[in-house]
């Protein structure tokens, strides 16, 4: 086991200002796209700038986008968040789609530093040896091979009879009882 976690900062997971309780505030404050106008490794970032950057800026009005052309340098995306954190993504030989996916990921993150040892608010001397429970813990393994949507699995396990069906059952039971009484009276 490694002891490298001893030198990492420790802390708890924090949501900035209870984001999402009242309304969502995008934590991404600024994006700087650094690229070379001539270098082939910046082609994907240049394609993204030409085709998709205007749509990205329209969809995210709270995020400022800066373009910084640099000669003979590798393409980089720098994301700056409201809490002051920065994240760097090296986009060397990325396609336009990969750049778009990275920007979407950076836009949806809260800017927390990933190099943090998470501490918990609880402690136990006897942790479970079975692992954490998930909604898929007791599912049948055969469901892994099923194509969804599946009509057989969509059926409910128990269908409660409707009021009409219940009345019909009561009526049929009364008819049976009457037939039995008539039969007994004849004998």
TrEMBL record:
Residues 37-110 form the Ribosomal protein/NADH dehydrogenase domain. It comes from the Eukaryota. GO terms for biological process: mitochondrial translation. Gene3D superfamilies: Glutaredoxin. GO terms for cellular component: mitochondrial large ribosomal subunit. SMART domains: L51_S25_CI-B8. Keywords: Mitochondrion, Ribonucleoprotein, Ribosomal protein. GO terms for molecular function: structural constituent of ribosome. It is found in: Mitochondrion. InterPro entries: Ribosomal_mL43, Ribosomal_mL43/mS25/NADH_DH, Thioredoxin-like_sf. PANTHER family: 39S RIBOSOMAL PROTEIN L43, LARGE RIBOSOMAL SUBUNIT PROTEIN ML43. Belongs to the mitochondrion-specific ribosomal protein mL43 family. This is Large ribosomal subunit protein mL43. It comes from Popillia japonica.
